[in-house]
Fold this sequence. Notes:
Layout: H1 5-16, E1 34-38, H2 45-61, E2 65-69, H3 76-83, E3 91-94, H4 102-105
Parallel strand pairs: 1-2, 1-3
Amino acid sequence: xxxxxxxxxxxxxxxxxxxxxxxxxxxxxxxxxxxxxxxxxxxxxxxxxxxxxxxxxxxxxxxxxxxxxxxxxxxxxxxxxxxxxxxxxxxxxxxxxxxxxxxxxxxxxxxxxxxxxxxxxxxxxxxxxxxxxxxxxxxxxxxx
Length: 144
């Protein structure tokens, strides 16, 4: 079994730091259970994607990653939960939409989506399309 280039560089970097001893390192992340929140109920597409990511992270980290469903208010409850969690990386959020839209949808927020969150990784993309019947004629009202 061969190593990818990235894995080989990680191992080489770790080997270079061995002479400095264990006392120079902080706790290895994750040292305890990680909670991965999603703003939608169990059984939907966002929940499924979150569970797939959680299972993959559990295998990679050799640490439990628990999915926390916080449905409601257009994912605002999940965003609020993570925004007010300690900034230690043990409460993460999988946001299928852009958290920045929240400021446009709600007049008051208990968090600032632009500064209270930091993107970590792109999990996937999906297209949005609008479909109308072919028989629908273009209205002069909508014409530009």
